[in-house]
Task: structure prediction
Amino acid sequence: MTAQAAAAPVALHRVLPPEEAARANFYALLARLVNAPPDGALLHRISGAGPLEAAGEPDLARAWRELVAASSVMDADAAAQEHEALFATMGKQVVAIYAGAYTGAPAVEHPRVRIRADLVALGLAPRPGATEPEDHLGGLLEVMRVLVGGGAGRDAATLAEQRRFFQAHVGPAAGRFFAALARAEPANYYRKVAALGAAFVALEAESFSLD
Amino acid sequence: MKTTRTPRRNFLLAAGLGGAGAIAAVATARKPVPGAKTQAAAAEPQGYRASEHILKYYKTTEV
Result:
């Protein structure tokens, strides 16, 4: 812990209802798996996780069950190779990891410009030293995690703010991204990640339409 | 925090998110966003933060 962190005042956070905490955790896990391959510890933790409620959303529960099963037989080296084969940024990516690739990215009014402006309005910005552009889907999923669960120096966003950011920058692109990931030839373990991501994003899109 | 059972909340609970502790058990293992600096606080998100300096910079890039 740095001296600065040690001297930081204690922050009091509101306790999230369980379904909102679960949403934040889904975003966190998906962001983690998009940003980097799972290491051995994460594979172990996923493989030891229990099932989702059987009476819940069947696509989500099935996707989770299959990811848990795949994690129990996947090793970190193979996951790293697969992640690199899918998302390596040298040359053309097998699966584009930037939202602009799925939503159309005109030279003027590129999605990154709008995302940048919306991040400022939400009081968020990439950490100094971050090299990925703002429409990196791992980063966008991480933004949703912050908006749902709070963190990064701010409380959870209002539902209206969450909805606006999701519908403007995350939902359509993430849905197409996970569909492309599921179809990608090098995908094996990440096909399970794609199924989980697609089911969760569909659930989010539907839930945002209910209010 | 609003605690009334809105249709949206009912929907999320019916979808099984109310008991999704399985996700919480694994979701805390995070790695930095590519290119981001390692942070000391594990509970904090890795990719974004509020920063006056950065906010001012981005203000200059708004269109």
